[in-house]
Each structure stands twice: as C-alpha cells, then as structure tokens.
Amino acid sequence: MNDDSLNQLIQTRIRQDVLSMHAYAVQNAAGMVKLDAMENPYRLPAAMQAQLGQRLGALALNRYPDGRVNDLRQALADYAQMPDGFDIMLGNGSDELISLLALACDVPCQAGASQLPATILSPVPGFVMYAMSAQLQGLKFIGVPLTADFELDAAAMLAAIARYSPAITYLAYPNNPTANLWDDAVIEEIIEAVGAQGGLVVMDEAYQPFASKSYIDRMGKHGHVLLMRTLSKFGLAGVRLGYMMGPTALIAEIDKVRPPYNISVLNCECALFALENKEVFATQALDLIGQRAMLLEALGNLPGLTHWNSDANMILVRVADSTQTFEAMKAQGVLVKNVSKMHPLLANCLRLTVGTADENRLMLAALENSL
Prior knowledge:
This protein is of the alpha/beta class. It is built from 14 helices and 15 strands. The protein folds into 2 domains: 3-46 and 279-370, Aspartate Aminotransferase, domain 1; 64-276, Type I PLP-dependent aspartate aminotransferase-like (Major domain) (Aspartate Aminotransferase, domain 2, 3-Layer(aba) Sandwich), CATH 3.40.640. Helix content is 42%, strand content 17%. It has a 7-stranded mixed sheet with strand order 2-10-9-8-7-5-6. A 4-stranded antiparallel sheet has the order 11-12-15-14, covered by helices on one side. A two-stranded parallel ribbon has the order 1-13. Helix 13 packs across helix 14. The longest helix has 22 residues, at 278-299.
C-alpha cells in the first residue's frame, strides 16, 4: 500500500474527531530528575523486590486470571474500609474505569421530541481523561470553570447541573492539577443537585494517600455516589490498577461493560503484595507529606512565584513565564509539567511533583535559577 492509499484509508476509516485529537504525550525523562507525573519516587526495598520476584515467577502465566482477583477485591475493600452494602470494581488504572463509566451511562437525554447525547460534567481545570472519555464515547462534556483561586464555583456548578442534567459529574478530591480539596458544604450541594436530576457523582480520590480528608465516611448517605481510587499514587504507577466503590446494585450494572480478564495475574499479585506490606507504603506517603511541607515553605520564600496549598503529592505554582522557566529547568536536568496551556486559569503555571529530599533540593535549585 503506497502513502496516498494509506492516507486515504486513514481519512475514510478513522473518526474525524479522533483525527483532530492530540495523543496523550509522555515526556522523555531519560537522565532527568523526573518530577512531572505525580509518581511515588521510591522503589521497593531490595528484600521486597526479591520476595515479589519469587511470587511473580511462580504464577501460571499460561492461564487466564482466576478467583485470585476476588482476593484482591476483598483486600482493597478492607484497606479502604468500604461501607456495608457496597461493592468494588477493578480497572486497568482509573483511566479504564472512567472509560467504562462513559460506556455504561451513555443514555441519551430526552429534550422534547428529540434526543440529546448524555453529558459528563466536571470542574475545569481538572483531569483530562474526563473530557477525553466523553469525546471518545460520543458524550457531551461540560467543563465548569473554577474560581480564580481554584475553588468550586457553586453557583455555576448548580446552574450547569440544572441545565444539562449530567449523567456523570466528576469531583476530583483533591483536584489535579490544582492539588486542593473542595469545600464540604459545596460538595454536598452539588451531590444533592445531581441526585435530584437522576445522575451519578464520582468522587475521584486518586491522591488519597496524601490527603487530609476522604469522602469514604460520607459514602453511605447517597445511593448515587461512587468513589474511585488508584494504586498509582499509593506507589504502584507501573502496575496500572484502579478501583471503584459504590452501592452493590449499581456496581453490578457498571461491571457488565468491563472486559473479561482486564486485570492480569501480574497486576493482581503485585497489588496483593503491596497491600500485605501497606505499612511500607504508608511510611513513604508520610515522608512525601513531610517533603511537601518543606517545599511549600521554600516556595513561599522565592520571589516572583505564587504557589497554592496542596493535599496531593504535587504543588501548583505560577511564574512570570512558564515556558521559559520549564525549559530552563529542563536544561538543568529537572523535568516538571508545564500545565499553562491546559486552561486559561492555569496561565504561566507549572505543576511540581513532590520527590525525595535529594530530588526536591535539585528541583528547588533549578527553579530558583530559572526564575
């Protein structure tokens, strides 16, 4: 097939909206201090690496995943202290769960004699996969801008809920990339409003290991609220495992669209091993919380920079010229995330991942030299 024929095939067989999209870009971090993706910077201790290696080597890789996945579901339910009457669903990272929710909830809205696409609603700036999953599934995405200080705009959220009757409303708790928790009273207003419209609310707690609060204790109050978490920030970003909790009957229906065997035996065993050693990861999280406090104090002393408080393992900062600062830091071997083009509210903002003490020291030096 020549280039012209291949191009014709692409243009006629690939959806036009997909052709116009940009693929998710992963920055090349070779040889860099990697502080761009909110990863836990710590590897497993050598003894734990050996133990896990033995367990993974003994797995029956020639067989499909079996009931061991249910052992993981129970272990996660125990770890999260899942309320009675709830069940848990696993995904290949939270990204898959977000896609499956869009697939399961793609029910057109009635508007007089016509039908409109189902709507997904979320504050913006927020996690990009909420909008992307809506687009790929053919749903409408409505982003409601945060206030200038990155708080929920209660009036705008409630107005959007009343207007669009969203099938799914996402509330990241804390938010990405702003790293803040929302006001409890505003959250409850939004949840009540979505419930009155017959929609679902998903509390996305991807950064729960570093947050001062969780919504888990309030889950039992509402039958239309799901809580989603991931083991990526726990310390297993490479394992790709997310989980979602909600009322048993609701989870059972959403679980019908999950591909069979979506959690590999390797992912499953890694996650079980990590949960059996959860105190190691809890210690790492406490260390990163301490490093975050140190960074926040140091950033407050840098002239020409604004920073926001954080309940995650990242910190949002605003500089005079984010592109110049990003490139200058990169030239010094420190990779952070330039989020300035994600949304107008993020003009000249960088997102800094909290790393080890040595990584943070190098990042602060590179940042100060680049301002």
